[in-house]
UniProtKB/TrEMBL annotation:
Keywords: Cell membrane, Magnesium, Membrane, Metal-binding, Transferase, Transmembrane, Transmembrane helix. GO terms for cellular component: plasma membrane. Mg(2+) binds at N151, D211. It comes from Parafrankia irregularis. It is a multi-pass membrane protein. This is UDP-N-acetylmuramyl pentapeptide phosphotransferase/UDP-N-acetylglucosamine-1-phosphate transferase. GO terms for molecular function: metal ion binding; phosphotransferase activity, for other substituted phosphate groups. Coiled coil: none annotated. Residues 365-378 have a biased composition (Basic and acidic residues). Its cofactor is Mg(2+).
Length: 391
């Protein structure tokens, strides 16, 4: 499996510069707007190289496994192919939201069907009828939902490469301990491709993953975790590496709905974005998130393999970890505020009003000395106000 992971790493490393040049020629560039976490227009679509790395790693598996008996990664390959193509079309030409969601739902159905065929019925931990129902109902929702959650979280340098690398490594360990060759191989290939892309995206981003990359990595993780659960591996062990991304996306979605906001529009209110708003650099946020993902992966594995007391303790530790992360921006702001001062709340710059001297929190800070600046009241003119860019 090490050979497959190494192949994925090397192919991704070699093809990312090619993808960078191609995206520039296609003018697939992420420009800057008030929701951006970058300061320079940057090409997107680097995930093409990640997908190629995954394909290369899977092709090497028969040689690395010996005797041509390779783990079954067909569900992951189908997911990478279908969701990757949807993401590539979005990066290059754009797809209407409703059409994109429809295509994703269809892709989720296909992946779930392939997954159901690939997992032997006698290997399932539940009755076959229940497994079939779960694959038909829960599978498409889970795969499509997590792919979009992963895409929502791909907003600062290196964060999604770190998530995929650490989670891939965690799934490799889980697969080894539970005798799941698919998780071992899939996790190694996924981690290798993410590590191969990282030098081009962290700490300075020369190219972004784009939708093709976030969909590819998200689909890989979603399929591997669902495959692991259907094979009888405890839920905590396979979902713990994804817990931080799920918690951030879920909490943000609930908060926006409760505020009456258009939850499906672009925004800057994820916890990791708020951490950059209070002055943390991309490097610090990404390193923190990666460390927390590694910790949650270990706790999930401990909960899955320990006795009842250990399981409860590990689950409580996971809860504390997630709650602490979600409240980190507010706690940092509170710690920095002078005594007696009103506690400011990190806000979505897109929700900025017209009040004079509005407080603007910096984002995408690249230095190590964060500061808060004030934006003067804009000059009033007789013309209509500019419309916000909602990309």
């Amino acid at each position: 499996m090490i050979g497959a992971g190494a192949a994925a790493l090397l192919v991704t490393l070699a093809t990312t510069p090619v993808a960078l040049g191609a995206m520039r020629r296609l003018a697939a560039i992420d420009d800057i707007n008030e929701r951006s976490s970058h300061q320079v227009p940057t090409p997107r679509g680097g995930g093409i190289a990640v997908a190629l790395g995954i394909f290369a790693g899977v092709l090497v598996l028969p040689l690395a496994s010996g005797h041509g008996d390779a783990p079954d990664l067909l569900p992951m390959i189908v997911g990478v192919t279908l969701f990757g193509l949807i993401g590539l079309a979005e990066d290059v030409g754009g797809i209407a939201p409703l059409r994109r969601l429809t295509l994703q739902a269809l892709a989720g159905l296909v992946v779930s069907a392939v997954l159901l065929v690939s997992v032997p019925l006698d290997a399932m931990s539940v009755p076959p009828a229940v497994a079939v129902s779960a694959a038909a109902l829960i599978g498409p929702l889970w795969v499509t939902g997590f792919v979009n959650a992963f895409n929502f979280m791909d907003g600062i340098n290196g964060i999604s490469a770190a998530q995929a690398a650490v989670a891939g490594g965690g799934l490799t360990v889980v697969g080894h301990l539970h005798n799941s060759s698919a998780l071992v191989a899939g996790g190694a290939v996924l981690a290798g491709s993410a590590i191969g892309f990282a030098p081009f995206n962290f700490p300075r981003a020369r190219i972004f993953l784009g939708d093709v990359g976030s969909y590819t990595l998200g689909a890989s993780l979603a399929v591997l975790t669902f495959q692991g659960i259907m094979s009888g591996i405890p839920v905590e062990a396979v979902l713990a590496p994804l817990l931080l991304y799920l918690a951030d996306t879920g909490a943000t979605l609930v908060r926006r709905i409760r505020r009456g906001e258009c939850w499906y529009l672009p925004h800057r209110t994820h916890t990791y974005q708020q951490l950059t708003d209070v002055g943390w650099t991309h490097t610090r946020v990404t390193a923190t998130v990666a460390s927390l993902i590694a910790a949650s992966s270990g706790l999930g594995l401990l909960a899955a393999r320990g006795h009842a007391g250990v399981r409860v303790t590990a689950d409580l530790a996971l809860l504390v970890l997630v709650v602490g992360y979600l409240n980190a921006p507010r706690l940092i702001t509170f710690a920095r505020a002078p005594r007696g001062a009103e506690l400011p709340t990190p806000a979505d710059p897109a929700q900025a009003g017209d009040s004079p001297r509005e407080l603007v929190l910096p984002h995408q800070r690249q230095g190590d000395s964060p500061r808060i600046t004030e934006r003067p009241e804009p000059a009033r003119t007789g013309g209509a106000p500019d419309q916000a860019d909602t990309r």
